Design the sequence.
């Protein structure tokens, strides 16, 4: 019995420390903390607190918008494109019934693959999934344009129907 007493005491201490380290903040307290951190432009801390919110309050009505905002921070501030894609895909899985939200996340996944990671095969796959699932969505024209111009240099893209390509201007001038 004496051999087990130090082990038991150590175990109780560790459990107590683990329990004390748990985040006891309420949903509202975490939301206020997130707003404060963002206003102070402490974006690394804000992302950590947002992740804590998402994990701690999986049933919150604010969870989906928090996840979307977190993905935007990962793209814009952290430049962690893979983490952003991971979050957008989690939103699609967790909120499959919200077709508008899923469509936005599907679009952003394709967009990140195409424009940030330059992984055109992955972008094409995501964009094609978008068009198959959401052919009448307001973003469908944008997706079709992205697919048409996937991997092209900016000088090869006609932005407006009346815009002449640089090659045709050179031919006219010669």
Sequence:
């Amino acid at each position: 019995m004496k051999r087990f007493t130090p082990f038991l005491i150590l175990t109780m201490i560790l459990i107590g420390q683990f329990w004390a380290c748990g985040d006891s903040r309420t949903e509202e307290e975490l939301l206020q903390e997130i707003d404060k951190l963002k206003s102070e432009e402490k974006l690394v801390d804000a992302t950590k607190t947002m992740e804590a919110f998402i994990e701690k309050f999986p049933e919150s009505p604010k969870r989906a918008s928090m996840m979307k905002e977190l993905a935007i921070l990962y793209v814009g501030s952290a430049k962690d494109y893979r983490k952003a894609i991971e979050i957008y895909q989690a939103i699609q899985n967790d909120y499959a019934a919200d077709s508008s939200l899923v469509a936005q996340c599907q679009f952003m996944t394709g967009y990140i693959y195409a424009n940030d990671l330059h992984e055109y095969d992955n972008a094409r796959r995501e964009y094609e999934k978008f068009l198959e699932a959401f052919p009448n969505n307001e973003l469908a024209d944008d997706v079709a344009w992205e697919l048409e111009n996937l991997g092209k240099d900016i000088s090869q893209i006609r932005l407006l129907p009346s815009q002449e390509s640089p090659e045709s201007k050179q031919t006219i001038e010669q």
The domain at 28-153 is CATH 1.25.40.10 (Serine Threonine Protein Phosphatase 5, Tetratricopeptide repeat). Residues 12 and 18 are 10 Å apart (CA to CA). The chain has a mean pLDDT of 86.
